[in-house]
Design a protein that fits this description.
Shape: globular
Number of strands: 10
Helix content: under 10%
Order of helices and strands: EEEEEEEEEE
Structural class: mainly beta
Length: 133
């Protein structure tokens, strides 16, 4: 079941250099939007995707952002995932989003499992998120 399409706006990438697990990169999130049948709104500035670029080229994703719905509710969205631009069958970009909110109207988000398929567009990252349970 479709949950939302998430569009992120990011600031320039911060390259923290090589660490013990690979190159550490941060993609600061400065805004964005999300839209779906049950929730719509904006992405607040201040989140980021903390990424590790492994020696094999895989990007390990660790994103945390705050969503504000059109009716003012705040929702934490966090996901881990993988991005492989050199995958044999074409780019692979998948995420496992989780949500947390105290807003009663959106409490269903606290109980769901979801998956996301991402891509990088000219305007920034776009994630199509599907609810599994």
């Amino acid at each position: 079941r479709s949950l939302m399409t998430l569009r992120l706006s990011t600031a320039p990438t911060e390259d923290l250099g090589e660490g013990p697990r690979g190159k550490r990169l941060t993609f600061p999130v400065v805004g964005g939007s999300f839209a779906g049948d049950r929730l719509n709104g904006v992405v607040l500035p201040g989140g980021a995707d903390w990424v590790i670029q492994r020696p094999d080229g895989i990007l390990e994703l660790d994103l945390r952002v705050t969503l504000r719905t059109d009716d003012g509710a705040l929702i934490l969205m966090a996901f881990q995932g993988m991005r492989d631009d050199g995958a044999p069958n074409g780019p692979y970009f998948r995420t496992l989003p989780r949500f947390e909110t105290g807003a009663e109207r959106y409490a269903f988000l606290n109980r769901i499992l979801a998956v996301g398929v991402g891509e990088i567009s000219a305007d920034g990252p776009v994630h199509v998120i599907e609810e599994l349970l």
